[in-house]
Design a protein that fits this description.
Mean pLDDT: 89
Low-confidence stretches: 1-47
Strand order of the largest sheet: 1-4-10-9
Number of strands: 14
Distance between the termini: 54 Å
């Protein structure tokens, strides 16, 4: 999506720059892959070169990164600044009122990392690509190329023009890729499966890295480092038309269900962050990282609990999906329980009723057609007839899930936080889901108690 209506605003909000040279200053390291030194040359130069300290207790150097960004053409309106509540999570906010439709940040195209740009620079890594494809991870290829690019820049140490930015990045991540099997054991099935998917992506990328000739063995064999690089890319890059883009400075914008900024790109590929609503002074800049009705997916991918999420997937995972079920709403984003009210989405009831009719194909087909054709009268009649069956099934699901969740939370409470530091986050996720399900239970128990299954 282009942001042409907002381009003219940049000339008023931002000093003009030459985007063709914004990331090239005299006597700086070029952005191409350096000649690969012999092992002896590497060992000689290593002792003289500073590297990013990726240990979890290392401090993030935000000041140097901001100077670097400004030198290479990143611009922002005066009211936008970086801040932190805990010294670890650094995020963008505004200290001045900003009206809707204003560009608040500009990042030139040649300062950010993209999967296509990394592939063009590094060359096609055929052996690595083939391996990832054999591991059924083809969708991870865009992520893989930026992953390798990050490690190459790390390998170049302070000679890398990206060094100040790399040194400003978080050291601690709580995503699924950063978790251990003990963490997955304390999560409900969906969250555990999604978190393990992230770990599998990392394992596949790490395995493919072994085939990349210009990354040193020392880096390849440092799993803490490669996991850090993977998490940088996975949690801080955006999806753009099937590719991945990682935009320095814009990656400091946090997630919320209730957003106030969005990102777009002009004809030259430069990135602009613009307000989508009036933003009062003192507000963080917030954008969406994904579907807010599936906080477990955000939890697994990014490693946070979205307290602003209005709903949660109902966690019904034992129904075999088919095209008709998809048509009537069998989807994570539609089969939800609403957090604040405990209301059950209509799609949950429709899917359960459809499955209740598995033994009566004629009635099942008639109900399906009523759903897709908007025949509310026929649909309501079926729901009235089978209300007892549907709510009995739903109540059994909610009760069983809550019992299992209690067991998981007890298991988590017995873990040693020194060896399992992500347990508090896991407990917060489980508590969020528990509170939502308890509100649902309060709503459906009276209905189930007053409904009598129809015998057929």
């Amino acid at each position: 999506m282009k942001l042409k209506p907002f381009l003219s605003l940049c000339s008023f909000l931002l000093d003009p720059i030459n985007t063709a040279t914004a990331f090239h200053t005299p006597h700086r390291c070029k952005l191409s892959i350096p000649r690969q030194n012999s092992r002896r040359e590497q060992q000689s130069s290593t002792s003289l070169r500073a590297y990013v300290d990726v240990s979890e207790d290392a401090e993030r150097d935000i000041g140097s990164m901001q100077e670097w960004a400004q030198a290479y053409g990143v611009q922002q309106i005066p009211g936008v600044q970086l801040t932190s509540d805990d010294g670890r999570d650094i995020y963008a906010m505004t200290v001045e009122d900003v009206p809707e439709g204003n560009v608040v940040m500009y990042v030139p195209a040649n300062i950010y990392l993209s999967s296509w740009g990394s592939k063009a620079e590094l060359g096609e890594l055929t052996e690595a690509e083939d391996l990832i494809k054999r591991l059924n991870g083809e969708e991870s290829l865009p992520l893989f190329y930026i992953f390798v690019k990050i490690l190459l820049e790390y390998q170049n140490g302070e000679d890398s023009p990206f060094f100040p930015w790399l040194n400003s990045l978080p050291r601690i991540y709580n995503s699924g890729a950063a978790m251990t099997p003990a963490c997955y054991d304390c999560l409900p099935p969906l969250a555990a499966a999604l978190a393990m998917e992230e770990r599998v992506k990392f394992i596949n990328c790490n395995q493919a890295l072994k085939t990349v000739p210009f990354i040193s063995d020392e880096i390849k064999n440092n799993k803490d480092l490669t996991r850090w690089a993977f998490n940088v890319v996975s949690t801080r890059s955006f999806s753009v038309e099937g590719e991945r883009v990682l935009v320095p400075m814009a990656d400091m914008i946090n997630h919320s269900t209730y957003t106030n900024v969005d990102i777009s790109y002009d004809d030259e590929g430069n990135c602009m962050v613009y307000t989508t609503t009036d933003v009062p002074a003192g507000s963080p800049l917030l954008m969406s990282y994904g579907d807010p009705t599936n906080p477990s997916a955000l939890f697994a991918k990014y490693g946070f609990v979205d307290e602003s999420s209005p709903a949660s997937f109902c966690k019904i995972m034992n129904i075999q999906k088919n095209s008709e079920l998809e048509d009537i709403g069998m989807d994570y984003s539609r089969m939800v329980f609403w957090k604040d009210t405990g209301d059950v989405a209509q799609e949950v009831l429709d899917v359960l009723l459809y499955t209740e009719l598995n033994g009566d194909r004629a009635s099942q087909q008639q109900f399906y057609l009523a759903c897709i054709n908007g025949d509310e009268q026929t649909k309501a009649a079926y729901h009235a007839q089978y209300q007892g069956d549907v709510y009995a099934t739903l109540k059994d699901h909610v009760d069983t899930f809550l019992e299992d969740l209690e067991d998981l939370m007890f298991k988590a409470s017995m873990k040693n936080l020194d060896t399992h530091p992500r347990i508090p986050l896991i407990m917060a996720h489980n508590q969020f889901v528990k509170e939502t399900f308890m509100r649902v239970k309060a709503n459906i128990d009276p209905i189930a108690a007053n409904s009598y299954p129809v015998l057929y």
